[in-house]
Amino acid sequence: MDDKKHEGWTNFETWAVATWLKSDHKKYRYWYSEARWHREEAPQCKEVREGIWSLEDAARRNMADQIQREITQHVSGVGRGAYAELLDAALGNVNWEEIAEHYLQKVKEATAPFGPVIFNYSRAQAIADGALVDITDTAREAGIRFHTAVTEAVWRNYVAVPAGVAGQDELGRLWDIIWMLRFAILRDTRKASGQINFQLVVRNDNRGVQEVTLKAQCGPGDDAEPVITIMLPHED
Predict the structure, then answer these.
(1) How distant is the alpha carbon of residue 123 from its chain centre?
(2) pLDDT per residue over 61-113, tens digit each?
(3) Which of 15, 27, 38, 184 has the most CB atoms less than 10 A away?
């Protein structure tokens, strides 16, 4: 393929797929989560154990294969004919490894030993990248007036519905978090602390519920306005 020549990407086809994935927040969160998984699983890759690939090679190539496979399956229902052939030709020009590397780099930045670099990784960028999920509109319905977000880990573990779990939906699970936060704020007597731990019950399987603890921090946003971030207890 030629060197980068379209909006910083290898070609138009790669840019188009990458932009499509980023335009849908759920898709972006999904691939961000998959990038984390590929980084964690890279040491178990056969080619890494045999010294053929580096950890970075394994994560990038395996994730690229997954993206290509799932995107190709997603568009496979268009039938045959000129349109399908054009689509196949376009997808054949996509640099899948470049797209994979984009997500892997975002995960690397967010999980660096000292956290993301604050001066060039704003809250707005974190939301755009899927590291944070903006829930401000729903929070305001509950009377929380500040901009509010949850971390990707909170969304993945306690908002997204695990596969096969009956009687659950994302909005209901999100409201559980917001209401328990609101009650915790109302009960808090240390309002100057800027941090509250609160509990809620969740059901991540069909056997029963469990109590979990989350942490909410209130601090300055990109423009020094107060913002709330809900995270797991060990997250910063």
Answers:
(1) 14
(2) 999 999 999 888 866 655 566 766 777 888 899 999 999 999 998 888 766 55
(3) 38
Q: Is 86 exposed, middle or buried (0-12, 13-18, 19+ CB in 10 A)?
A: exposed
Which amino acid is it at 230? I
Which residue type is seen at 38?
H
Does residue 123 surpass a pLDDT of 80?
A: yes
- Residue 151's nearest CA partner among 40, 37, 236 is 236
* Gap between the Cα atoms of 59 and 97, Å rounded: 10
What is d(CA 21, CA 61) in angstroms, rounded to the nearest whole number? 18
What 8-state DSSP symbol labels residue 114? T
d(CA 127, CA 229): 11
The b/e string for 166-198 (b: 16+ C-beta within 10 A; e otherwise) is eeeeeeebbbbbbebbeebbeeeeeeeeeebeb
CA distance 116 to 155: 19
In 3D space, the residue among 45, 27, 37 whose CA is nearest the CA of residue 107 turns out to be: 37
pTM for the whole thing?
A: 0.51
